[in-house]
Amino acid sequence: MSGGWRPHAAWAGGLALAGAAWYASDSLRHRREQRHGYELRGGGLDVREDGFLAACEALTGAPVSEGNELEVLVNGDEIFPALLETIRGARRTIDLETYVYWRGAIAVEVGEALCERARAGVEVNVILDAVGAAKMDRDLVRRMREAGVAVAFFRPPKAYAIRQIAKRTHRKLLIVDGCAGMIGGVGIADEWTGNAQDPDHWRDTHVRVRGPVVRGLQGAFAENWLEATGDVLVGDAYLPALEPVDGGGPMQVVRSSAGVGDTEVEALYFLAIASARETLDLTAAYFAPRPAFVDALCDAAERGVRTRVLAPGRHIDKGFVRTAGRAEYERLLACGVEVHEYGPTMLHAKTLCIDGAWASIGSVNFDNRSFQLHDEATLCVRSERVAARLAEVFEADLAVSEPFALERWRRRPVRARAAERALKLVRREL
Fold it and tell me: What is the mean pLDDT of residues 47-58?
């Protein structure tokens, strides 16, 4: 009996060592924790010029197309009518992908709209992330399938693939007839309805697009659909010829997936921040930047760019992410970055606007999950009109947000500092 515990201890020790080895090997992807960032070689870039778009295209592999139009939609009161109108206008195909599909009246309304189109003969495909949509009403899933909707759950958790649990699809996409699309941050749940009027109704931004860039949205959906089902979506119903829209501008859809090394959206954000010359407005639903991104924001502020960050306030649904992000506020404020926290409700929008001319709107948060772990997609546009609209929205958000001053921040309670330091240690997993 005296030695009976030793085999168990050996097994426990072996498992611990194996776990530590897996963690260490997995951490090789996170060189940004050691402040290894990017440098621009070959001269500076201006987001207003074609050289910047060429750099984005070369770095991410995402083609830039001309002749696209975009409509900015703010909060559920604008987003859901547009989403339902787009679905109900489908004649041949609907592809819907979302991380969050929960419960409530809007969840049912969207489901019923998909069912109606499927019964009318439209091919309807839906990708639901198996973790993000865990709270979805399974009876609604059953009704959708009975109506002819093809529903696939992305990467259901499996004991033999434990490392895949953190690697979700965070994309929010809608493509109809291969020629109209939507992308942004909104989930399908009652939390996103309304107009951010109270803590029960969240603040978000989405866009609706037409033009050749819709092919990029279709590609992002098709990539996840192939993994989830083994089906390749082809033919004119999914990939029609897309004519440029008169007066439309250049856009691209940048998508990324978890893997070793730097993802496309991570490289894109570094490039955009490094190219800023006048203004940089970042809205981040989850703001937990690694050191290299803090360096990039500080570098922008120190070269004279008005750099502003808008993050969630006390109504955030994941308070630990807010605490981890706050660990960097002092350094950001000290180098001249303006930091604000949104007051009325949960801020779930994800936008980046540079120099009043270029913007990114999609599902990308300013944290390691988006940059390294999740499948993400964002729509990038060079348009002073779109940038001006996003600037209006940003200023309206700042009007109901709390700004932080360096000296006041330095007087925060000791317990807050301790919590920030503790969560900073696991920031790369947030």
Answer: 97
